[in-house]
Amino acid sequence: MRKTEVYQVRLDSQEKKQAFAVFKQLGITPAQAVRLFFKQVVITKSIPFSIENQNINLDSLKNKKTNTAYEQHNMNDDEFLQTLQALLNNKDNP
């Protein structure tokens, strides 16, 4: 049997309820959903979906340093998503 590990995540309560309802409709558990996500990250070596937010101007971030998210631990979720999307957009245009 393969070794497994426990990983904890803090979630917004409302988003958690909504996501868990979707998982139930799909017939999978939240743990299965997380494992599927991680498996796709490993297979694709990327985030396996497009990250979009209509309130974010992604073009303004293309000139930022690529490791900003790791250097600034005080980023909020929107700032992190902006930086991540910029990284994903730039991976095809080195």
Automatic annotation (TrEMBL):
<dbReference type="InterPro" id="IPR007337">
    <property type="entry name" value="RelB/DinJ"/>
</dbReference>
<dbReference type="GO" id="GO:0006351">
    <property type="term" value="P:DNA-templated transcription"/>
</dbReference>
<keyword id="KW-1277">Toxin-antitoxin system</keyword>
<comment type="similarity">
    <text>Belongs to the RelB/DinJ antitoxin family.</text>
</comment>
<dbReference type="InterPro" id="IPR013321">
    <property type="entry name" value="Arc_rbn_hlx_hlx"/>
</dbReference>
<protein>
    <submittedName>
        <fullName>DNA-damage-inducible protein J</fullName>
    </submittedName>
</protein>
<dbReference type="Pfam" id="PF04221">
    <property type="entry name" value="RelB"/>
</dbReference>
<dbReference type="GO" id="GO:0006355">
    <property type="term" value="P:regulation of DNA-templated transcription"/>
</dbReference>
